[in-house]
């Protein structure tokens, strides 16, 4: 059995940076966003189902999914969003579980932005939350995505609250500071901790 650490955090919290630091230590990274992109590539059954349901308006001329068009189609239509989630979430979950089972590092990191919102904490032995203040989230994301403050605030409002994420956390990385060296030290400390916990579990198995 693989020891799974779930990594989550709000938009702009620095999840990707933290995941990269764990990867540098040899940890297998399973990223829900990458899986979500893979399952709607041309030739995948999910893409055919989306095209059949929403019509050619959500497809590009080259036969790829037009993500922006799809987002706009489902944004204010809860029933359409629910249909899309019902199609994609079980496939993503199945792929994540298979990837965790196939992991060969002492433990694996399952990176899921909506880990708390989609009730996926049961897939993990530990939950690690990258925590930042809402103000810093907003600043970083506006700068990174060149999006308006209003757009970012809407995304933040749709995600779990900071309090909800922290309530689900076993471990927390505070990422308010731009101190990369401090972040590396914290990741290294948690890495040693997780290796120990994984070995403990293996000993019991």
From TrEMBL:
It is found in: Cytoplasm. Its EC number is 2.7.1.24. It is an enzyme of class 2 (transferase). One of its GO terms (molecular function) is dephospho-CoA kinase activity. InterPro entries: Depp_CoAkinase, P-loop_NTPase. Pfam families: CoaE (PF01121). Keywords: ATP-binding, Coenzyme A biosynthesis, Cytoplasm, Kinase, Nucleotide-binding, Transferase. Pathway: Cofactor biosynthesis; coenzyme A biosynthesis; CoA from (R)-pantothenate: step 5/5. It catalyses: 3'-dephospho-CoA + ATP = ADP + CoA + H(+). PROSITE patterns: DPCK. ATP binds at residues 12-17. The keyword Lipoprotein does not apply. Belongs to the CoaE family. This is Dephospho-CoA kinase. It comes from Oceanimonas baumannii. The lineage of its organism: Bacteria, Pseudomonadati, Pseudomonadota, Gammaproteobacteria, Aeromonadales.
